[in-house]
Amino acid sequence: MKTNLRFLLLFFLGFAPIVSSAQTEKPKFQYSIGGGVSVDRSNKLWGLNMTNEVNYRLGKRTSLNAGISFYQSLGNLENKEVFPGQKSMDQSSGIFITPMLKYDILQRDSGFKLAFAAGPSLQLGGQSILFDYDYTDPENPDSFILHNKYQRIGLMMELEAEWKTKNPNIRNAASISAYGADNDFPLFINVNYKLRFNFGKK
């Protein structure tokens, strides 16, 4: 994971200025807001996320994307064994701050685009997981809650489809992304819908 992060940082520093100076098109900004469903794979939880992004176009196919998203779990993916009358208290949440380099793999005259993006992502968040010491005595449950807080840098990768709407300054987008850290990938999987607004000169 550390090797991947070093490679991405070097790629940003070395490749982005070259692309920017090699293109004659004027830059264009886009702002996106969206949300969707997330899966916390390590804790087998599911939840919702909200995302905000600003995109700066470098060239015909390349752009820089800066995003911030918030995730909150809502429930377990599987039925978890707890003592009678004892509800599962598992939960996880986090804020992800993510700069990414984005490349349009596919561009159609209809306005459809398929893009791949990757970059380092800072996760600020935590988790609370219920553990039971003893399953043999339901009359005297013995359990504890494990709390973990995270401030870690990982890798975010995203595949996104984008298409036109009737308004030339508004576009639709749908994406699937994955985040990993600490030599574990993916830790989180996100499926999102986004509404994208164009502004700035083309």
Descriptive key words:
Porin; 202 residues; eight-stranded antiparallel barrel; mainly beta; elongated
Question: Could you characterize the architecture of this molecule?
Answer:
This protein is mainly beta and 202 residues long. It has a single domain (2-19, 34-76, 88-125, 153-199), classed as Porin, CATH 2.40.160.20. The chain has one helix at 2-22; strands at 29-40, 45-57, 62-76, 91-107, 113-134, 142-164, 170-181, 184-199. The chain has an 8-stranded antiparallel beta barrel with strand order 1-2-3-4-5-6-7-8. It is elongated. The two termini are 37 Å apart. Mean pLDDT is 83; it is low at 15-27.
| CA distance, first residue to last residue | 37 Å
The computed structural class is mainly beta
What is the general shape?
A: elongated
What is the helix tally?
1
Q: Any idea what the radius of gyration is?
A: 20 Å
| Biggest sheet details | 8 strands, antiparallel, barrel
- Helices and strands, in order, run as HEEEEEEEE
Percent range for β-strand residues: over 45%
Helicity, in percent? 10-25%
- Overall CATH class: Mainly Beta
Report the CATH architecture.
Beta Barrel
Could you tell me the CATH topology label: Porin
Which strand order spans the largest sheet, edge to edge or round the barrel? 1-2-3-4-5-6-7-8
